[in-house]
Amino acid sequence: MNKQAIIERTIKAIQGLPVEKAEEISDFADFLIKRHEEQSLIQGIQKLTSAAASFQFLHEEEEVYSSDDLKEVYNG
Fold first, then answer.
1. Cα distance between residue 4 and residue 42, in whole Å
2. Angle, vertex CA 30, rays to CA 28 and CA 36, nearest 5
3. What is d(CA 38, CA 35) in angstroms, rounded to the nearest whole number?
């Protein structure tokens, strides 16, 4: 089923409902739109940050401590 057919089927179903139920469907559609927009935004931010060199220093950080600095060694 294509998007247009789904829209038409949904409109017919909503027309048969009382106003309160139609409002619930409208609220749910608003929720889905907002969630989709947020997910798209998060994916875009992740894509930008993974390609940027801004956080490269995190991968190049030198080791400050070694096992020689430990006061106690856990021998499990």
1. 28
2. 105
3. 5
Each residue of 15-55: pLDDT tens digit?
999 999 999 999 999 999 999 999 999 999 988 888 777 77
Q: How many CB atoms lie within 10 A of CB 25?
A: 13
Q: Which two tokens stand for residue 55?
A: 């956080």
Distance between CA atoms of 25 and 19, rounded to whole angstroms?
10
- DSSP summary character for residue 55: T
**Which residues have a Cβ under 8 Å from the Cβ of 25 and sit 6 or more positions away?**
10, 14, 17
Distance, CA of 76 to CA of 52 (rounded, Å): 41
* pTM metric for this prediction: 0.58
Phi, psi angle pair for 61, to nearest 5°: -70, 130
